[in-house]
Known about the structure:
Elements: E1 4-8, E2 13-14, E3 17-18, H1 20-32, E4 37-39, H2 52-66, E5 71-75, H3 81-94, E6 98-102, H4 111-124, E7 129-133, H5 135-138, H6 144-153, E8 157-162, H7 167-176, E9 181-184, H8 190-195, E10 200-203, H9 210-221, H10 225-242, H11 249-257, H12 274-286
Parallel strand pairs: 1-4, 1-10, 4-5, 5-6, 6-7, 7-8, 8-9, 9-10
Antiparallel strand pairs: 2-3
Amino acid sequence: xxxxxxxxxxxxxxxxxxxxxxxxxxxxxxxxxxxxxxxxxxxxxxxxxxxxxxxxxxxxxxxxxxxxxxxxxxxxxxxxxxxxxxxxxxxxxxxxxxxxxxxxxxxxxxxxxxxxxxxxxxxxxxxxxxxxxxxxxxxxxxxxxxxxxxxxxxxxxxxxxxxxxxxxxxxxxxxxxxxxxxxxxxxxxxxxxxxxxxxxxxxxxxxxxxxxxxxxxxxxxxxxxxxxxxxxxxxxxxxxxxxxxxxxxxxxxxxxxxxxxxxxxxxxxxxxxxxxxxxxxxxxxxxxxxxx
Length: 292
């Protein structure tokens, strides 16, 4: 159900309010470049600093703007199970194709707590669910055995956005759950994860270069490994620069430099260090995106 390229969509701000004009143009650009779906209100979308009203407004706007042309995998996770259920119910109500649910952050639940958290959501809301595993942000890893139990016990938990950065973990997941839809959560691991049975990627980079990410995945899926490898290695230096500071600082800076939206982050996210911004500008120039 969820394969190909999904963009972890940024949330444009203007005067600290959501810039829906810019968001609409971003969504249209994603569709025109062949993106399979968008994932609003995730880490890259600064969900933790969106109010309830803003969170809902962004998801509903994405549904209306995409008009069925792309799938919507809405971020509905929280460190509160009750809040995650609330947002997941909203996603179902407005017609999202699925919910991307990050593991609780800061709480550091046990594996038993993670199981109960995700099962409570899945049992309450009948919508396809993709788990989002990113221990670097949440301080807790969803172990493959826990994923397998959730996959077996909850018919609507169908996939995982795996951002552990570990091919060993990804391999363990596919060994335990061959039918799980595993989307890479790290742009550097898009091709490696496809090679071990992944179905695609939830990409930060595709906010900026959607066509290249789409071509990489399509090349692999049609059996053109040489073309996929060529794109993979071309992207590596660019990816490193796009994560020189905490996501989404670099990607939103790049988007503003390219005129996709105004520069705007919600505190405690802040403007890039000047030295890193110079590196980002050079990377955009080297990639042929920016003339400076």
